[in-house]
Amino acid sequence: MLTRRAFLLAAAPAVLTARAALTPRERIDRVLRGQEPDRQPFTCWYHFRLEALPGEHHARATLDFHRRLHTDLVKVMSDFPYPRPAGPWYQLKPEENPYPEQVRALRLIREGLRGSAHFIETIFNPWNVAEKLSSSEEVLRLMRERPQVLLDALEVIARSEARHARRAVETGASGVFLAIANAQSGILTSQEYARFSEPFDRIVLEAVSDAPLNTLHIHGDKPYLERFYQGWPAQVLHHSAFATGVGLAEVRQHFSGVILGGLDETAFRKLTTDDIAGQWRRAREAAGLRFILAPGCSVPDDTSDEELLRVPRALQILS
């Protein structure tokens, strides 16, 4: 017997697949080239909270999510923790493979997609990893009192994450989604970010500079977006237009690559299908051909399937 959940998950995307002339990978490739796709590409994500389980569970959840919504770009979440040292958190040693379960998941995702869609690996920047190993207050204290100790720890994390980034791309990922949450007023000054974070963020991205879909996710409501418009080995820029008040038209004035975003993640669960269609239409007009619709960050983890399906349904309105 077909359950309500199964019916909801099957009904909306069926129309999309019936009309589709391109695979999700081909659709994204056209966007990268600045060409008109057969339909507007989109993606969406949230945290599965499966880090206590083997990578197979993470891969299964990722593939299921992609198939349910018929997303065009598979943004792989990454919640497995960085290895914790036996002593003080900052006494770190280089890690050849800091996220082995994530790598296992990436292999299974590649096998499950069979080349039909691009997938990108989420990496939280070294500063964020340091906060998770200690706390935001401890990292800031170390920055002020023992800056070289912090710089050394961040470099170890960066070199280890660079190895993971290369391993992810070798496994089949089309790039990394580097999440940067500390390049904003209220956390670091622009000068502090330039000294204590940017060099290490660049180490991670430059390790996979040849990948076609490296993405900069600039998190927060007061980010230093101007630092990221040029000079990074990333083809895609992602931020929250709704949290920051910086619209996609303004970003397009400074950034020529692919803009990812346009959906209000802060109010996502309250958006109707018509609301989403309207945001999608305005974002597409502002960003142009090099554009992939997405929320400005992950949507709430408790978002229901019916709420998620408003996104592909909105595409039917736009078609």
Overall structural class, as computed from helix and strand content, comes to alpha/beta
Rg (C-alpha, Å): 19 Å
The largest sheet is:
7 strands, parallel
Stretches with pLDDT under 50, minimum 5 residues: 1-10
Mean model confidence by pLDDT: 94
Beginning-to-end CA distance, first to last residue: 32 Å
Strand order of the largest sheet: 1-2-3-4-5-6-7
The general outline is: globular
Please bin the fraction of helical residues: 40-55%
The helix/strand order is HHHEHEHHHEHHEEHHEHEHH
Beta-strand content estimate: 5-15%
Number of distinct helices: 14
Q: Report the strand count.
A: 7
What does this molecule look like?
It contains 14 helices and seven strands. By secondary structure, the protein is of the alpha/beta class. The chain has a seven-stranded parallel sheet. Helix 1 (4-19) runs parallel beside helix 14, helix 5 (126-133) crosses helix 6 (136-145) and helix 6 packs across helix 7. The two termini are 32 Å apart. Mean pLDDT is 94; it is low at 1-10.
Which key features would you list for this structure?
alpha/beta; 7-stranded parallel β-sheet; 14 helices; 11% strand
Outline:
The protein has 319 residues and is an alpha/beta fold. It has helices spanning 4-19, 24-32, 55-69, 100-113, 126-133, 136-145, 147-171, 190-196, 198-206, 241-244, 248-254, 273-287, 305-308, 310-318; strands spanning 73-76, 118-124, 176-180, 215-218, 236-238, 258-263, 291-295. Helix 12 links the parallel strand 6 and strand 7 (291-295).
Task: List the SSEs and their pairings.
Elements: H1 4-19, H2 24-32, H3 55-69, E1 73-76, H4 100-113, E2 118-124, H5 126-133, H6 136-145, H7 147-171, E3 176-180, H8 190-196, H9 198-206, E4 215-218, E5 236-238, H10 241-244, H11 248-254, E6 258-263, H12 273-287, E7 291-295, H13 305-308, H14 310-318
Parallel strand pairs: 1-2, 2-3, 3-4, 4-5, 5-6, 6-7
Helix pairs in contact: 1-14, 3-4, 4-7, 5-6, 5-7, 6-7, 7-9, 11-12, 12-14
